[in-house]
C-alpha cells in the first residue's frame, strides 16, 4: 500500500459526482452520448449466462452424467425465461471434437438432462460445454465450460501417478494497472507466473533498469500472481528477473513506458464505503480538455464523471452501494474521447443465498433412509423461495480433488465475466481465507477481459444478430429450383409426425429468396417432418434443402483442461465398485442372450448374394430400418455404438471413424469407404441420406484384404436402396417433397435409486453406487424450506451432499453437508 499512502498524502479529494451532475459540464456531449450508447448496446445485445451442475467431476464409461442447467439474464442475473432451448456438448480434449450433443428444454430458466457414456469413449479429459442459441452471437469464451474426466475400469492408464513433471520455462506476463506505463508517474504492475500447463507457480524476483539499478523487488502472493510499484524514467528500459522455487531464474522485459498519457489506479481495498479511483496524467501544461470516467457493471452504467486534464491528479470516490455484487469495469476516456485506460474490480456485498442442509441425524446405517431438510434464507436471514439441484455422493469413491472448484456462486459472479482459466475460483468466496479480497483484486488486474469493445458500443447503429432468441426448436432451410436458382415465393406445408403418432400440420410461405423458418417447435427425441413446396397452383418442380444443424466450432480457450490427477490408491475403491457393477450388468445381458438362444430356430436362413459385392462374408452387417434413422443426421451416425470395435467420434458433420487396431505412428488410420461397391471419400458418405441406405457392411482385418493396401484401416461399405438390382422405382420421392428427421429435446430421465423400504428382487444385488441421489428440481416454499430423502448404500462411508441454486431475482447460493454411514 506504499503507493496508495503516497497518493493520500500528496493529493486532495475530488468526489465523483452522480451521472446527472456530471453531465452538466460545459463539454458534456460525449458523456451524454457515452451513456446513451451503452444503454442502446445493452438493449440491442442483451447477454445471457448459463451454468450447469453435475452430480460429480469424473465418471467411468457406462455411467451417466446427471446435469441441470441454469439460465440467467446477464445484467441482473434474473432467472432467464426467454430462451427455451439449452445446448450441451461433451467435447474430447485430445481430438477437440464433439462426441455427444444434447438439446435440453428450458422452462423458467431451468433445464435438466443426462448423458449416458458409451463404452467406446476413450479415457481422458473432456469438457462439458453449454450455451443457448442467442449466446452464439457472442464469443465462445463466454459459453459455460466445465472439465470432466472419463475413466476405464480395465486399464492401468485410468490412474496416473500424480508425479510432478519438470518445469520448463514459465510464462510470465506483466500487466500495468489501467493498461499502460507512463514516464514519470508511479504505477502498479501486476504479474502472473504460470507453468507451461497453465498452472500458477510460486515466484519472486526483482526489476533492473537499463542502467543496472535495482528498482524494486516482488513476490507472488496467490497462484503465481502479485504486483509491484514502479516509476518509469525517460530513456530507461526495465527487465524483471523471476526466480522459481526450484532455484531456476528467468528474465523478461517489462512493457515499454510511453512518454505521456494517463494512468488509472483503483483502490478497492482500503475503504469500506467507497471505491477510490485515481486518475493522473503528464500532459503538457498547455493541453486543455476534459477526460471522462465511466463505471459500469455488466453493461449497466453506475456513474459517469469528468475531470479537467489541467489537474495532474484527480481522485474520484464512488459509493459501494451503487454497485451490484460482482465484477465492475472502470474505463477512462482521454480529452479526444478515446478509451486509454481500463480496470476491473470485484465488489463484494455478500448478497447471496444461505443454503443450509440439515440431516435428520449425523449417523445412519447401511441402506437406511437419509432425510435432509433444506432451508434457504437471504443475507438478512429471511426465508427465500429458490430452485435448487442436489447431489449426494459416496466420499470414498468421489474424491474431492479440487476443494475450491467452481460452483454456481463463483461462476455467476466471477467466472462468467472473465476470459481464461481461474484457478481455484472458490478460494475467493471462502471467508476463512483472510487474504482472499486482496488476492481477488490482483486477479482483476491480471485476468483478460473483453465483454465488448468500446468502438462497437459507440456506433450509431448495430448489426442485426445472426442468431435469434429461441423459444423452441427451429426448422429452417431454403427452396430452390432444380438449376439452384431462387424460385420466388413458395407455399409450404409442414407435416410433423410425433413419436406418439400425433401429427401437426403447419402452412406458410418462403420469402423471395426461398428462405423459410418454423420457430417455437416443441417435440422430444427425434421426429419425422414432411415438407411440401408448391409454386403457384400446382408446380412442384423445386428442391427443398434444410439448414445443417451445425454445432459451434470447438475452441479450447479455457485451458488447461487437464484430466484430474489421482494418486494410485485414491480411486481404487471407485474403479473396483464400477467394474463390479458393470460385470453384473454384463451377466444380466448374457443371461438374456442364453434365454433367447434356447427358443431360436436352428435352420440358418440363406442370404442372397448382392451383385455389388466383391467379397464374401462381412465382419459385421447393419440392416437399416426406420427405428435406426431417428436422430441420425448422417450415415456414419448409424454406426455409433452399434458395431463392436468401430468408434465414431466427433460431430455428425465432421466425424472421425476408427476400426479397433487401425492406427500407426501418425495417428488414426480411417477405413476405406465405398458406396454400392465404388470407393468414395468420407465427405461423399456424409452426403448420402440415411433414408436411402439399405444396409452397411463392416470389414475388419483379413476380411478387408481383398481391397488391398488402401483398406489397411478396414472398410465401411454402404449399400443404398436405389443401387440394389431389386429396387422398386415406384417408391421414388415426390417432386417438391422432403422427408427428414429432426433431433428434438432430450426426454427427461428420472434418476433411479433403490427404495429399501420396499421388498424387490433386485435388492439382493450389492449396492455401492458412487452417486446415491440426484434431485435436480428442488423448490423451496414461502418458508424457504424443502425436504429431500434417499437411501444409503452398502458402503460404510461418508456421504457428501452438495446443493446449488438461485432465487428468481438472481441471488445464487451453495450449501454443503455430510453424514456418516456405519
UniProtKB/TrEMBL annotation:
<comment type="similarity">
    <text>Belongs to the TonB-dependent receptor family.</text>
</comment>
<keyword id="KW-0812">Transmembrane</keyword>
<keyword id="KW-0675">Receptor</keyword>
<keyword id="KW-0998">Cell outer membrane</keyword>
<dbReference type="InterPro" id="IPR012910">
    <property type="entry name" value="Plug_dom"/>
</dbReference>
<dbReference type="GO" id="GO:0015344">
    <property type="term" value="F:siderophore uptake transmembrane transporter activity"/>
</dbReference>
<keyword id="KW-0472">Membrane</keyword>
<keyword id="KW-1134">Transmembrane beta strand</keyword>
<keyword id="KW-0813">Transport</keyword>
<dbReference type="InterPro" id="IPR039426">
    <property type="entry name" value="TonB-dep_rcpt-like"/>
</dbReference>
<keyword id="KW-0732">Signal</keyword>
<dbReference type="Pfam" id="PF07715">
    <property type="entry name" value="Plug"/>
</dbReference>
<dbReference type="GO" id="GO:0044718">
    <property type="term" value="P:siderophore transmembrane transport"/>
</dbReference>
<dbReference type="GO" id="GO:0009279">
    <property type="term" value="C:cell outer membrane"/>
</dbReference>
<dbReference type="InterPro" id="IPR037066">
    <property type="entry name" value="Plug_dom_sf"/>
</dbReference>
<protein>
    <submittedName>
        <fullName>TonB-dependent receptor</fullName>
    </submittedName>
</protein>
<feature type="domain" description="TonB-dependent receptor plug">
    <location>
        <begin position="617"/>
        <end position="715"/>
    </location>
</feature>
Amino acid at each position: 500500500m506504499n503507493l496508495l499512502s503516497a497518493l493520500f498524502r500528496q493529493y486532495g479529494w475530488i468526489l465523483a459526482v452522480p451521472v446527472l451532475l456530471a453531465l452538466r459540464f460545459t463539454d458534456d456531449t460525449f458523456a451524454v452520448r457515452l451513456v446513451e450508447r451503452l444503454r442502446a448496446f445493452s438493449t440491442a445485445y442483451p447477454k445471457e449466462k448459463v451454468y450447469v451442475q453435475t452430480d460429480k467431476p469424473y465418471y467411468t464409461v457406462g455411467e451417466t452424467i446427471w446435469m441441470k442447467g441454469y439460465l440467467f439474464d446477464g445484467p441482473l442475473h434474473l432467472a432467464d425465461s426467454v430462451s427455451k432451448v439449452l445446448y450441451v456438448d461433451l467435447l474430447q480434449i485430445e481430438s477437440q471434437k464433439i462426441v455427444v450433443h444434447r438439446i435440453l428444454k428450458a422452462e423458467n430458466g431451468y433445464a435438466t438432462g443426462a448423458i449416458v457414456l458409451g463404452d467406446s469413449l476413450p479415457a481422458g479429459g473432456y469438457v462439458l460445454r453449454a450455451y443457448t442459441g442467442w449466446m452464439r452471437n457472442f464469443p465462445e469464451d463466454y459459453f459455460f465450460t466445465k472439465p470432466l474426466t472419463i475413466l476405464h475400469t480395465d486399464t492401468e492408464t485410468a490412474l496416473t501417478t500424480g508425479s510432478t513433471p519438470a518445469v520448463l520455462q514459465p510464462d510470465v506476463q506483466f500487466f500495468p494497472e489501467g493498461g499502460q506505463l507512463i514516464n514519470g508517474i508511479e504505477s502498479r504492475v501486476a504479474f502472473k507466473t504460470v507453468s507451461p500447463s497453465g498452472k500458477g507457480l510460486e515466484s519472486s524476483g526483482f526489476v533492473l533498469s537499463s542502467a543496472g539499478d535495482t528498482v524494486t523487488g516482488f513476490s507472488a502472493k496467490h497462484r503465481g500472481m502479485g504486483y509491484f510499484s514502479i516509476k518509469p524514467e525517460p530513456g530507461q528500459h526495465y527487465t524483471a528477473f523471476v526466480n522459481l522455487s526450484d532455484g531456476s531464474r528467468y528474465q523478461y522485459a517489462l512493457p515499454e513506458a510511453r512518454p505521456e498519457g494517463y494512468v488509472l489506479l483503483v483502490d478497492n481495498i482500503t475503504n469500506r464505503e467507497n471505491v477510490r479511483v485515481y486518475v493522473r496524467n503528464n500532459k503538457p501544461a498547455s493541453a486543455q480538455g476534459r477526460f471522462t470516467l465511466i463505471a459500469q457493471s455488466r453493461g449497466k452504467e453506475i456513474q459517469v464523471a469528468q475531470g479537467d486534464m489541467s489537474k495532474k491528479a484527480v481522485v474520484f470516490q464512488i459509493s459501494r452501494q451503487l454497485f451490484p455484487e460482482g465484477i465492475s469495469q472502470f474505463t477512462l476516456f482521454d480529452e479526444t474521447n478515446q478509451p486509454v485506460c481500463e480496470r476491473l474490480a470485484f465488489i463484494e456485498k455478500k448478497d447471496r443465498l444461505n443454503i443450509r442442509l440439515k440431516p435428520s441425524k449425523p449417523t445412519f446405517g447401511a441402506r437406511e433412509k437419509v432425510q435432509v431438510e433444506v432451508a434457504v434464507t437471504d443475507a438478512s436471514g429471511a426465508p427465500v423461495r429458490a430452485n435448487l439441484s442436489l447431489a449426494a455422493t459416496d466420499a470414498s469413491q468421489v474424491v474431492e480433488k479440487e476443494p475450491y472448484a467452481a460452483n454456481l456462486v463463483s461462476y455467476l459472479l466471477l467466472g462468467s465475466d472473465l476470459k481464461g482459466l481461474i484457478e481455484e475460483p472458490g478460494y475467493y468466496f471462502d471467508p476463512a481465507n483472510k487474504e482472499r479480497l486482496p488476492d481477488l483484486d490482483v486477479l482483476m488486474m491480471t485476468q483478460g477481459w473483453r465483454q465488448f469493445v468500446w468502438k462497437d458500443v459507440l456506433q450509431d447503429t448495430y448489426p442485426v444478430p445472426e442468431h435469434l432468441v429461441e423459444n423452441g426448436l427451429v426448422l429452417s432451410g431454403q427452396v430452390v429450383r432444380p438449376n439452384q436458382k431462387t424460385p420466388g415465393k413458395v407455399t409450404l406445408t409442414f407435416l410433423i409426425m410425433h413419436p406418439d403418432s400425433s401429427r401437426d400440420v403447419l402452412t406458410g410461405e418462403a420469402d423471395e429468396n426461398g428462405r423459410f423458418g418454423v420457430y417455437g417447435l416443441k417435440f422430444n427425441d427425434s421426429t419425422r417432418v414432411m415438407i411440401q413446396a408448391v409454386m403457384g397452383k400446382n408446380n412442384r418442380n423445386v428442391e427443398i434443402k434444410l439448414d445443417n444443424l451445425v454445432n459451434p466450432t470447438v475452441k479450447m480457450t479455457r485451458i488447461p483442461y487437464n484430466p484430474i490427477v489421482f494418486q494410485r490408491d485414491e480411486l481404487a475403491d471407485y474403479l473396483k465398485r464400477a467394474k463390479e457393477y458393470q460385470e453384473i450388468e454384463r451377466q444380466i445381458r448374457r443371461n438374456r442372450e442364453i434365454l433367447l438362444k434356447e427358443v431360436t430356430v436352428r435352420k440358418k436362413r440363406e442370404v442372397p448374394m448382392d451383385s455389388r459385392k466383391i467379397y464374401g462374408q462381412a465382419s459385421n452387417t447393419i440392416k437399416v430400418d426406420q427405428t435406426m434413422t431417428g436422430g441420425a443426421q448422417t450415415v456414419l451416425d448409424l454406426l455409433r455404438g452399434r458395431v463392436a470395435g468401430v468408434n465414431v467420434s466427433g460431430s455428425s458433420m465432421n466425424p472421425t471413424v476408427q476400426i479397433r487396431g487401425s492406427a500407426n505412428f501418425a495417428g488414426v488410420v480411417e477405413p476405406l469407404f465405398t458406396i454400392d461397391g465404388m470407393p468414395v471419400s468420407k465427405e461423399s458418405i456424409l452426403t448420402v441420406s440415411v433414408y436411402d441406405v439399405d444396409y452397411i457392411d463392416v470389414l475388419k482385418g483379413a476380411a478387408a484384404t481383398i481391397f488391398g493396401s488402401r483398406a489397411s484401416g478396414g472398410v465401411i461399405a454402404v449399400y443404398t436402396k436405389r443401387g440394389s438390382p431389386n429396387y422398386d422405382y415406384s417408391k421414388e420421392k415426390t417432386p417438391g417433397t422432403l422427408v427428414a428427421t429432426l433431433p428434438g429435446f432430450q426426454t427427461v430421465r428420472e434418476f433411479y435409486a433403490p427404495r429399501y423400504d420396499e421388498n424387490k428382487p433386485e435388492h439382493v444385488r450389492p449396492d455401492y453406487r458412487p452417486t446415491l441421489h440426484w434431485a435436480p428440481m428442488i423448490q423451496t416454499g414461502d418458508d424457504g424450506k424443502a425436504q429431500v430423502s434417499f437411501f444409503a448404500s452398502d458402503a460404510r462411508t461418508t456421504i457428501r451432499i452438495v446443493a446449488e441454486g438461485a432465487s428468481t431475482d438472481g441471488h445464487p447460493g451453495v450449501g454443503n453437508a455430510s453424514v456418516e454411514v456405519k
